[in-house]
Each structure stands twice: as C-alpha cells, then as structure tokens.
What does this fold into?
Amino acid sequence: MEQNKVRIAVLVSGGGTNLQALIDAEARGELGGGEIALVLASKPGVYALERAANAGIESVVLARKEYSDSDAYTKALVDKLTEKKIDLVVLAGFMIIIGEGMYKAFPNRIINVHPALIPSFCGQGFYGLHVHEAALAKGVKVSGATVHFVTPECDAGPIILQKAVEVREDDTPEILQKRIMEEAEWKILPLAVSLFCQGRLKVEDDKVRIC
Ligand code: GAR
It folds into this structure.
C-alpha cells in the first residue's frame, strides 16, 4: 500500500544523527508506516547527506546563502517540499529559522527536536551546543529533549513528547549533548514521527493529545 504512506522530508544542517535514528527506525518498521522520501540540507557537504545516500534516500541541497532573504528561502523550501508531495516535515538539527510561508503550507505538519526541556533553554540563540552550555552554566540537575510542532514563535509550538536526562557534575557541553542525544533525542523523535504517521496526534488549544 505504498501510496498510503506518509511522505516525510527530514531537514538537516549538520551531522544528522537524528536523521540516522529516523532511518534506523524506518528500517526496523517502527515509523508508523511513514517513509523518509527526502533529505533536504541547508548547506552542501554535511555528513547528513552521506547518511541519506547510504540509505538510498533522495537528497537535495538548498543552500541558505544562495537566497537573498528568509522569504525567498522559505518559498524555495515550500516549492521543493510541495513538488515532492511531502506530508510531514521534520527539522532534525536544521539551523535555519523558517518563514511564515512554511507554517501556512504545513500547518501542524512540521516537527522539531530541541535538546532541552522546553520552556527551558530555548528560543532565539539556543541551538546546538549553546543549549548545553546554558544548562551547565545554570547548574540544572536534569535536562533532556523535547519534540514539538513548529509554529511562528521559536520553540514555542505544541509539545508532543519530552524526556528528562540526568546532568552530572563533571559534564562538559559535549558530554551532556551526547547523553541527551542517546537517551532522549534518538528515542523520542522517531516515536513522535511514528505517532504522527499513525494519525495519533491531535492538537487542541495549543496542546497535543496522544490518542
Ligand atoms: C541536535 O542535538 C538537535 O536537537 C539540535 O541540533 C543537534 C543536531 O544534531 N537542534 C537544535 O538545537 C535546534 N534548536 P544532528 O545533526 O546530529 O541530528
């Protein structure tokens, strides 16, 4: 029943370990019937593109620096994702702020993974290692990861899943990042995508109900 599969695009900017977790979940039959149909990178040469090639997944580079502004880039994104008949967009370490046109084209159909327990350590400037530097600077005893729907306000959309991870006294940002990826991100991102593909996520009053 190939034609009934949810077609997923994974948007990446870097190493793509979350992409790999999604690829592995699909290979195990754990993506709720979803199919990764496209990997889209915001710059050439990133390792995520190699992961896509190794898995036989079509990929495309839309380099942000080739577009004059966010609106022009967003239009190119929407055009490409529409052309490829994408049903669900997953931001997996995609380090570009997307514009209004994306939310209109894919309402409640864009999912992001963030490496902290939102609403802590999120919003403008909180991405990648900066998130873990801020968590360690504050001295929190737990951090974790959040998967949420993307809305125009940065990191503020309805929360789908969260998982807490212990912070240890001798952690560096790199060590904490790795633990949060292994114990949280690589688990809850594929799970959230699977729930979406099964039609089990309902958004009501800006909150997600899993049914
Ligand atoms: C992940 O930790 C992801 O949560 C984070 O970037 C990393 C990408 O790693 N995303 C953000 O900070 C977005 N605000 P990956 O390329 O290996 O998946």
About this structure: Residues 12, 14-18, 92-93, 113-115, 127-128, 131, 181, 185 surround glycinamide ribonucleotide (CB under 6 Å).
